[in-house]
Amino acid sequence: MTSPSVLSENHHRALLANPEFAALSDVVRNDVLIHGRQRRLAAGQTLFRRGDKPDGLYIVLEGSLRVSGTSRDGLEAVLNFYEPGCWIGAVSALDGLPRAHDAQAVTASLVLQITPADLETLIARHPPFCRFLLHLQSSQMRALLVGFEAFSTQSLEQRFASRLMALASAFGSPMPQGGLNIELRLSQETLAQLLGTTRQRINQLLKKWEQEGLIEQRYGRIVVLDQDRLEELAQE
């Protein structure tokens, strides 16, 4: 009999960070672990590339990944960063079509892979798991639509404040003297790609916020000092 993947307490917490997955029965969750295969990635290592044949879906257990796309002219668009507890790659895993984007480890990472064959087994065996996948796709589609609306109706400063707060929530660690240190090295170019703007505009906003005491830039990282004010900017 196959045993479940042996996970640390932190990795179990990452899996249970998704409330819908946590709500599944022990039997279903245990079966997911039985069919899951752990895969380690070095910082900068590619998980999959655009055009690749789908090899399943992944759950981030440790580290951070980013998903991006590149135009024919070589222009890169960073779509999102994913922290422990996030599920990625479900679209191609479910529709069987080639990968639409690139996924790369930002830091040393650990993912749990569920291959297409194992995914089919889990779906056939556990209707609640199938409903979980539907909810997962619905949540991601909702976030995509909200993002489209924000891009069309909000200012760059609003969108940047909102995205920075999301990154702080996902990757922030409290500083002894106060503030949240975003544990990702985010270049101004990367932030520009994430927000669909220029590096110059990102530089202007970062300088403005630093002067106003909202953030601090330290060795390529951003420390959020005034979360309340950033939240207000995002809601204006």
Explain how this protein is built.
- GO terms for molecular function: DNA binding; DNA-binding transcription factor activity.
- Keywords: DNA-binding, Transcription, Transcription regulation.
- This is CRP-like cAMP-activated global transcriptional regulator.
- There is one protein chain.
- The chain is an alpha+beta fold and 236 residues long.
- It folds into two domains: 9-150, Jelly Rolls (Sandwich); 155-234, Winged helix-like DNA-binding domain superfamily/Winged helix DNA-binding domain (Arc Repressor Mutant, subunit A, Orthogonal Bundle), CATH 1.10.10.
- 47% of the residues lie in helices and 22% in strands.
- The chain has ten helices and twelve strands.
- It has helices at 9-15, 19-22, 26-35, 90-95, 116-125, 127-153, 156-171, 188-195, 199-211, 227-235; strands at 37-41, 46-48, 57-62, 65-70, 76-82, 87-88, 102-105, 109-114, 172-174, 180-182, 215-218, 221-224.
- Strands 1-8-3-6 form a four-stranded antiparallel beta sheet. It has a four-stranded antiparallel beta sheet with strand order 2-7-4-5.
- Strand 9 (172-174) and strand 10 form a beta hairpin.
- The chain is globular, with a radius of gyration of 19 Å.
- The model has no long low-confidence stretch (mean pLDDT 92).
